[in-house]
From TrEMBL:
GO terms for molecular function: methyltransferase activity. This is SAM-dependent methyltransferase. The keyword Phosphoprotein does not apply. SUPFAM superfamilies: S-adenosyl-L-methionine-dependent methyltransferases. CDD domains: AdoMet_MTases (cd02440). Keywords: Methyltransferase, Transferase. The keyword Cytoplasm does not apply. Pfam families: Methyltransf_11. Residues 51-139 form the Methyltransferase type domain. GO terms for biological process: methylation.
Amino acid sequence: MRDPSLRRSYALFRAFLREQTEPEHCYRLLARDAADQVERYVPLNGAVVADVGGGSGHFTEEFRRRGAQGYLFEPDTAELTARGHAPEGAVVADGYLLPLADGAADVCFSSNVLEHVADPQTFLSELVRVTRPGGLIYVAFTNWLSPWGGHETAPWHYLGAERARARYRRRTGRPAKHTLGENLFAVHIGTTLRQVRARDDVAVVTARSRYAPFLAEAIPRLPGVREIATWNLLLILRRLP
């Protein structure tokens, strides 16, 4: 599907709404879309791809279908086995300290992980370290002030994280999976862009709204507005020598 386009955004949003009942459809579609985005900048056939925090392996499987040598690194064994088995070749590993040599990957891929780490800059530094000079780093994350920033408690997180969690428990009878300050952190577009652009080891290839049907690159340039309208920021970085 053309990116950006209304058709693509509608298909992804519709799949997201059915995530709980049709997770395979949702994540396979998202994996195909992410692989398409990577291939706009680098061919996947023959590339070494490190999928950091890739959960149950949908992204890694899609990279392998396109001829890449895909390797999955995930710290949560429950996520790894969410489909009943761990993906072939998966490694239990912390994104702060990946068991990879410097420059081992042609592409380092991270989808919706940055908002779940307490120190995003150290995490990003590790992604850069394992990427070869000239290689690509793909980082997408849901920013806190996005309508989906509170994850399962959204959009009630706008009224406060604790209030949103209390509402979720009342409505579902179970605690929310994510707790702000423990496994979910308030990451912001403006702060992240300033920090990335200040680095001397990467160049920003694109910073865009991952799912927007139009103006995908324009939205993250608008201070204030971008914190809500971006929804999910996609950064494509080039590793510098």
